[in-house]
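> run fold HTH cro/C1-type domain-containing protein
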Amino acid sequence: MKREITYEWRIRELMAKHRMKSSTDLVQPLKERGITFSASQVYRLVAAENPERIAFKVLFALCDIFSCSVEDLAPWAAADARTTRRKLAANGNSGLADLRNYRPARARVLDDEEDG
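> ok
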């Protein structure tokens, strides 16, 4: 069975707790920890709803800046993934139409009236 991982990126909340109003407020603290990001790169890091990838060095630098754990920065949970088909089958609905009950509509071809 597949597992589904969900997480929530809470960098904005941590920035607010540390009175950081702008994403550019993170540029210098990151630079002090050996991470040279441009203002636009830091903005994308902060603005991302849930970033797909992040380097461990950046993750741990953020934890150091905010004096928090990874769990505080991005709490996560794992659960069994259920496919749509299984959910529908559990409800007694396969989600698929029975095409045997459908017939195409017969086309009616009409002659054009001739002018004249």
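The two ends are 74 Å apart (CA to CA).
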